[in-house]
Write a structure and sequence with these properties.
The protein is mainly β. It is built from 2 helices and 10 strands, in the order E-E-E-H-E-E-E-E-E-E-E-H. Strands 1-3-2-4-5 form a 5-stranded mixed barrel. It has a 5-stranded antiparallel sheet with strand order 6-10-9-7-8, with no helix packed on it. About 25% of the residues are buried.
Length: about 140
């Protein structure tokens, strides 16, 4: 049996690889990279995903995930619970401002009628960075350090 040397392991910086889940996109549409999704069912041993929207009943699905890469319809892909250092135009925002769930798995600086916080602004600039953290875990960890 192979062994793992603890020195080979690096801490999560922008992507929690150890918490990634392989899923099947059976939603009927392609899901882009960095889109917010929820587990909508199962197909065999794999969970299936659908892009979340501002009108998604979050309580029924409990958790939102972030697509690590584009996942075409009918194909397998990887989702993670949070993702840091995501590009976004944040010139109209301040550091720490919340991000909200938008349409078709997107995120926005505008709260809308049913605001669901899914992350926060890391840098405020035309080529800014955001933390997508729809489950809230990464933000809590960062506050502990």
């Amino acid at each position: 049996m192979p062994s793992v040397n603890p020195k080979w392991l690096d801490p999560n910086v922008n992507l929690p690889y150890g918490s990634a889940v392989k899923v099947l996109n059976s939603s009927g549409v392609d899901i882009g990279a960095n889109r917010l999704v929820y587990m909508s069912g199962a197909s065999g041993a794999r969970l299936t995903i659908t892009a979340a929207t501002a009108t998604t009943n979050i309580g029924a699905h409990r958790a939102l995930w972030v697509a690590k890469h584009a996942i075409p319809n009918g194909r397998y892909g990887v989702v993670v619970p949070w993702m840091g250092d995501v590009d976004m135009n944040t010139a109209a925002a301040a550091v720490g401002d919340p991000l909200y769930l938008g349409a078709a798995g997107t995120f926005t600086l505008t709260s809308g009628d049913r605001p669901v916080v899914v992350g926060e602004v890391l840098t405020a600039a035309a080529a800014g960075k955001v933390l997508l953290d729809p489950q809230g875990g990464a933000a809590q960890i960062m506050k502990w350090t």
